[in-house]
Design brief:
The protein has 7 helices and 11 strands. Helix 4 crosses helix 7. It starts with a strand and ends with a helix.
Length: 265
């Protein structure tokens, strides 16, 4: 039997997890440089995902989103070859086709990762309202009301902003190993008295306030909406606005696993 994997090719890394009995299990990630350079360790990941050595192949289900330039055009083949197992099947998961709720976009289409995250929320609580903050390479803040994904906002992610400042000749600001960025709560956080503190005021402090303002606007539209956080920098937005926030680092992949389960049952 082939192992079912769901893959989300994000801006800076590939995130993937095994799906067993309809449930997401053993989530991992690998940055694009590591994958392309051959430092990817398939033996360790095979053990951690419980993939027996004699498995016949991988059943690969990829979220339908455009991979970034860093991934390379043949990233999926590289991934399968690095894993050391052939891809028994390669299929696309398209949340836009099977969302189960209206998508209120007047033109074009929202990113499938945004809709996959909304699917995970909606399937867990079909009558609930959610403000979904996905803090990755870019930060998206979306509003899901019962029966309708209503739209959202997109802004540069924290690391993307920091890298842009570095290219402009300013010092580089970094998060710690727990993805916590330099941050001072309250008005004092906006007042940097040296260059690094000023950058901290202009990036993590100001971005948190921007997310708070967007979420507050959504709460005016839907007062019952609860704030859900996902993405690598989700810890930075914990408790934003003084609201109770719910963190789920694997919301996008969980939505993919739910759609896969619905499609195969």
């Amino acid at each position: 039997m082939a192992v079912k994997l769901v893959l989300d090719p994000g801006g800076t890394r590939l995130k993937f997890g095994a799906v067993r009995n309809g449930q997401l299990d053993a989530v991992h990630s690998v940055d694009w440089l590591e994958l392309q350079s051959g430092r990817f360790d398939p033996a360790t990941l095979a053990r951690e995902t419980g993939t027996p050595a004699n498995e016949s192949g991988l059943e690969v289900h990829v979220l339908n989103r455009k991979a970034p330039p860093a991934a390379g055009e043949e990233w999926l083949s590289v991934f399968c070859q690095a894993w050391g197992k052939p891809a028994a099947t390669r299929e696309v998961i398209d949340p836009l086709q099977n969302a189960g709720f209206d998508i209120a976009y007047t033109s074009g289409h929202p990113g499938s990762d945004r809709i996959a995250a909304a699917v995970a929320c909606q399937r867990k609580d079909p009558g609930g309202s959610f403000i979904i903050v996905d803090a990755g390479t870019c930060i998206t803040v979306d509003l899901l009301s019962p029966g309708s994904w209503r739209g959202g906002a997109i802004m540069p992610g924290l690391q993307l902003q920091a890298n842009a400042m570095k290219k402009a000749g300013l010092p580089i600001l970094q998060a710690d190993d727990q993805h916590h960025w330099p941050f001072t709560e309250g008005p004092e956080g906006a007042l940097g008295r040296n260059t690094m503190d000023a950058i901290a005021a202009g990036i993590p402090w100001a971005t948190r306030k921007s997310v708070e303002a967007i979420a507050q606007a959504y709460k005016v539209m839907d007062p019952c909406a609860q704030v859900v956080l996902t993405g690598g920098d989700a810890p930075h937005f914990d408790g934003v606005g003084g609201w109770q926030t719910f963190a789920n680092p694997n919301l996008v992949l969980q939505g993919c696993a739910m759609l896969l389960n619905e499609h195969t049952t």
